[in-house]
Each structure stands twice: as C-alpha cells, then as structure tokens.
Amino acid sequence: MSVDRRGFLLAGGAVLAGLAGLARSAPDDGPVRVTDSRGRAVELARPASRIVCLIESALSGLYMLGADAALVGIPANVYSGDVAPRYARLDARIAAHSLPAPGNWDFVSIERVLALRPDLVVVWAHQREAIEVLEQRGIPVYGVFIAGLADLRKEMLDFGRLTGTLARAEALLAATDAEVARIARAVAVAETERPSVHFAWGQGMLETSCRGSMVDELIRLAGGRNLCTDTAEHATPGLERVLAANPEVIVLWHNPRRSVESVLADPQWRAVSAVRNRRVFALPEVFDCDLWTLKYRHALHLMAGWFHPQHIALPGVAERDAMMASLYGRT
Q: Could you tell me the strand order of the sheet in which 249-252 lies?
C-alpha cells in the first residue's frame, strides 16, 4: 500500500499552523476546578503561572499545550538519558540546565519545591507522602496516574483548564483522534486475521501488560490480539506459558541493551513463530512514542504496520517529524 507523503506533510503543515495559533491565544483568567487521578479536587483561583511538574510524560503534555512559560521546576530525568537532548531543543532553559529539578517520579525534595513558590505541583499520584505535605502547605497538587487512553484524554483536558489552554488541548485531541481512527480503519480485520502478540517491556522479555492496560488497547487498535489475557497493568508470566502460546509477533519496548537481533538469536525463543518468521520488532526511543502522551499514536502506527503490512505502510521519518511539529507547535 502506498502513501502520499507530500499530501500528508502539506496537511500536517496546515494543522500545525492552526494549532500554533491556538497555543498563542489568550488564556482564560477565571477560577479553575478539575479532579485529578486520585479523585481529588484541584482548585486554582486563576490558571497556573508557576508550575512544578515532576512527571516526564505530564511535562511533555504541558509543552504540547504551549504552557512551558509557566514551568519553574521539572523532573530530574529530563537532564539525562535519551530524552535530554530532545527537551534541550524544546526549551533553552533546559539546554542551559537553568530550570531546577527538585524531584522525579520516585522522589520529591519538599524543601526545593517550596523554594520555587509554585501555584501548582504535578506529581505521580502514588507519591502520597509528598502530596500530603504539599497540600498541608496550601499548594494545589495534581496527582497523575494513566491506565488507559481515557485517562490520557482527561489529563490533557485538565491541563488545558489548569493552564488556560483548553482550546489547544481540544484541538490536539481532535487531531489525534482523527489519526487514530484512520489507522484503526485501515487494520479493521476479522478476529481470525489478528496476529497474536507478546509485548515485552524493557525490564525483561517476560515483563508484559495484560487486558485493560494501555498496551492492550493499542494492540487491539493496531489489529492485533494481546496474548496476556490476565487483568493486570504489568504481569510476568512464566517462560513456558509464553512459549506455549507461540506468539506470531513480538513487540519490544525500547531498551538500548536489547536488540531485535539478540532476541532472534536467543535459543530459548527460536521455536516461537515470531522468531521463525522474523516478526520481532522494537519500538524507538521513548520520547518518540511515549504511550502516556499523545505520541502514543506513533507507536500505534508502527504496530499496525508490523501487524498488517498489507493494509498500512509503516510511518517514515517525515511522518514522525510532522507529528512532532503538530504536537509541540515547533520543529
């Protein structure tokens, strides 16, 4: 199946121009009230102007909304690993290492957060002790936990309200919905045509996600069938169970220490259909297809192309770059 890449890029440019205009529109100045992932109300007298965000996926969402001018604190991991040069291109303050990083998903320096005088703090919902201390100090906290696409949609709309960029959030979601619907239509096959899929997280070949998870939703949308039928976000089925299920496709989460070739050469996996037919694929670095951001559509497109190459072409660099430009409002 061929793809008119020129038409895709022209359309992407038009979308980018429209979304960039929304990002520059004047925010609402009235009071704001949303409910976070904990079910707790988060109330602001006006859209946030000093935000400490300690979850990288949420930080990405704020940049997509054009709310980065309000950021006064970011996650520590933004200054290391694969994501560091990408955020450095998004924000000169990160390139200069001048934005404070008072925590991450696994720790929070309360003292350093307080010193930044935030009017909103965004952290992982399970960081309960830190949240309790901050809320006792009168600082509004938005707890993040994304289990599926509906949670991601809600988070983006909430961030749009909290930062006065709701129109931008709605436009981004509409554009994402349209692209996801296009991909899903292309691979809308009968159940018997869905290949069985084993998804392996970076921690190990047996670390996977099951029914009802974000990964499960994406496999289904991409025209596949998730082999893990337990109800669990993360599970570790035994090797014998996975081998007996004989997956037709294996999808690897990004891990620089594990390659497709290393899996194909592993004697434990050589009898599996996916290995025998060389249908083992690795997702690119996390920044490009973070499943907890609107960039999940890139992972979805890749999986759809791997599962059903006869129905949809794999996205190339041009498509990926057009997606990034439309989401972040810059190249």
A: 225-226, 196-200, 249-252, 280-282
Measured CA to CA, the distance from residue 240 to residue 217 in angstroms comes to 25
Burial class (CB in 10 A: 0-12, 13-18, 19+), 170: middle
Q: What is the pLDDT of residues 268-311, one digit of tens each?
A: 999 999 999 999 999 999 999 999 999 999 999 999 999 999 99
CB 28 within 8 A of CB 163: no
Q: Per-residue pLDDT tens for 72-114?
A: 999 999 999 899 999 999 999 999 999 999 999 899 999 999 9
pLDDT for 28 equals 61
CA–CA distances in Å: residue 176 to residues 33, 103, 171, 283: 25, 30, 9, 19
Contact predicate 328/64, CB 8 Å: yes
Which helix or strand (DSSP H or E) is residue 124 part of?
strand 120-124
Tokens, residue 45 = 């007298």
Decide: helix, strand or coil at residue 208.
strand
Of 150 and 16, more confident:
150
β-bridge pairing 32-35 and 41-44: antiparallel
Q: State whether the Cα torsion 193-203-245-147 is positive or negative.
A: negative
Query: Can you list the domains of the chain with their CATH numbers?
Result: 26-164 (3.40.50.1980), 189-328 (3.40.50.1980)
Q: pLDDT tens, 173-231?
A: 999 999 999 999 999 999 999 999 999 999 999 999 999 999 999 999 999 999 998 88
User: pTM of the prediction?
Assistant: 0.89
| Helices assigned H by DSSP within 116-148 | 128-136
